[in-house]
Amino acid sequence: MRKPVFLALAAFFVAASLAQGQSYLCEEQFKLDDELMARYRLGPELPPATAGQPAKPDLFRDRILRYTKMKLSHKLSGLASYYSGFFDGRRTANGEIYRNKRFSAAHLTLPLGSWVEVTSRATGKSLRLRVNDRGPYARKFVLDLSQAAAHYLGVDIAPDRHVDIRVVALPGEDPLPEDANTAVASIETAAK
Q1: Would the pLDDT of 98 be above 80?
Q2: CATH code at position 68
């Protein structure tokens, strides 16, 4: 009779300690006041505009500067490879079904869902496509292209497979307009 009671008490205390251990350093322990939470929801208050300053921030410029900073942490130029027919119909890293006849790309570090503009150095052609997979896993390649994208850019037959990659949108954003290339180049140059 004592053994089952002892086991029940032991199980109760173990379960209680496990529940407490799982909440250790969790968000429940941190209580944020309403003022701080309002800053996260609405952003910091902007200082009042002076005569020489614009009243609103330049969102386009801020976005380009963010993409320029992102270049430092991601490899955005190098050799491109392309998928074999074996992968057609299989799932990509973000759960989509991969199709060789659609434009898509794989990159090791860019956020899934990012839009990039890929330019082939050999042909000079550019193409905008979405990163929906991880890869390539061979060190010498920086980007895996779908067969349709590789054929459009000429990477599948060109002796020089070097491509330059430019981020045009992060996940959840609309891609930058194509006519914004000159404005982007001037902002990127000024940021360096």
Answers
A1: yes
A2: 2.40.40.10
